[in-house]
């Protein structure tokens, strides 16, 4: 999407008056992004990112901003929403919900190696532990109910073999989710979209995690599976690269060892994570 809703200096300057950020020095649209309009904002007192939300409703956003605030307060390197003088982290600009957050250093590395995967694995485990007491509650908006709802809408466009595979996998995941051991898996607010483009690096030094706007309540194991399925595969074949997978899982487990039920559920959770993003690409 890049920048869908433009913002000029003349529009932003009076909006920034609500914040203790000082005078606006620079405003630059961010070309990447598919869900929101984002801008780099430099002021006399810091560097920030301004987001105008193009699809999410105003009422949904306090959950996501609250989660980032919660994690940042616990030492997780993620954007920290900035409150205005009235204590609000969410406002409106150009008829869109808008928020200002701290800007992290680094850039995405789309060709990660084992050290990158280890850094992400350790950070993900710390994020899960830090989110355990987050009081906000919002179901994963791309979880099983969405899979079941979306499947009939994409089936007519699939080859018979792909359609059969999708039907079978939905049935498998419905049975999996109904099992008592699935209900007992550790869960909290999770990122749910921790792909390579949502982590910033400076070399192999991790700068932080961005884009929490697909977050929701789900199992920690699902979040780990989503992350492994992106960071640890060979792009040409889709197969896991052992060195990267071992690095990510080793770093994660060093912070938070898996429970026996999680180890048992791991193969099906990898399939669940793959299904979620297969469906979103089809849709």
Structural class: alpha+beta
Report the strand count: 9
CATH names the topology of the largest domain as Aminoglycoside 3'-phosphotransferase, Chain: A, domain 2
- Extract low-pLDDT stretches: none
Main sheet: strands, sense, barrel: 5 strands, antiparallel
- First CA to last CA: what distance? 17 Å
Shape: globular
**Which strands sit side by side, in order, in the main sheet?**
1-2-3-5-4
> What is the helical fraction, as a range of percent?
40-55%
Element order, helices and strands? HEEEHEEHHHHEEEEHHH
Q: Radius of gyration, Cα only, in angstroms?
A: 20 Å
CATH hierarchy, class of the largest domain: Alpha Beta
User: Considering the protein shown, what is the CATH homologous superfamily of the largest domain?
Assistant: Aminoglycoside phosphotransferase (APH), C-terminal lobe
Beta-sheet strand percentage?
15-25%
Mean pLDDT: 96
- How many helices? The count is 9
How many separate domains make up the residues?
Answer: 2
CATH architecture of the largest domain: Alpha-Beta Complex
Keywords:
283 residues, five-stranded antiparallel beta sheet, Aminoglycoside 3'-phosphotransferase, Chain: A, domain 2, 2 domains, alpha+beta, single chain, two-stranded antiparallel sheet, Phosphorylase Kinase, domain 1, globular
């Amino acid at each position: 999407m890049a920048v869908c809703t433009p913002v000029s200096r003349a529009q932003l300057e009076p909006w920034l008056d609500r914040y203790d950020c000082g005078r606006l020095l620079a405003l630059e649209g961010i070309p990447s992004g598919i869900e929101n309009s984002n801008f780099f904002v430099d002021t006399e007192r810091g560097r920030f990112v301004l987001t105008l939300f193009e699809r999410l409703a105003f009422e949904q956003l306090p959950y996501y901003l609250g989660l980032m605030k919660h994690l940042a307060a616990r030492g997780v390197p993620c954007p920290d929403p900035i409150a205005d003088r009235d204590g609000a982290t969410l406002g409106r600009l150009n008829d869109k919900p808008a928020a200002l957050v701290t800007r992290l250093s680094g850039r995405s590395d789309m060709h990660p190696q084992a050290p990158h995967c280890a850094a992400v694995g350790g950070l993900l485990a710390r994020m899960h532990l830090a989110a355990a007491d987050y009081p906000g509650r919002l179901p994963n908006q791309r979880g099983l109910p969405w899979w079941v709802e979306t499947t009939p809408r994409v089936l007519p466009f699939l080859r018979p073999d792909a359609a059969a595979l999708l039907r079978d996998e939905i049935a498998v995941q419905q049975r999996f989710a109904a099992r008592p051991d699935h209900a007992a898996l550790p869960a909290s607010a999770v990122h749910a979209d921790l792909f390579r483009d949502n982590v910033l690096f400076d070399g192999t030094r991790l700068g932080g995690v961005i884009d929490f706007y697909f977050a929701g309540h789900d199992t920690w194991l699902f979040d780990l599976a989503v992350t492994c399925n992106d960071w640890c595969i060979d792009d040409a074949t889709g197969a896991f690269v052992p060195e990267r997978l071992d690095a990510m899982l080793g770093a994660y487990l060093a912070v938070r060892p898996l429970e026996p039920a999680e180890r048992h559920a791991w193969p099906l959770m990898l399939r669940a994570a793959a299904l979620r993003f297969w469906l979103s690409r089809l849709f």
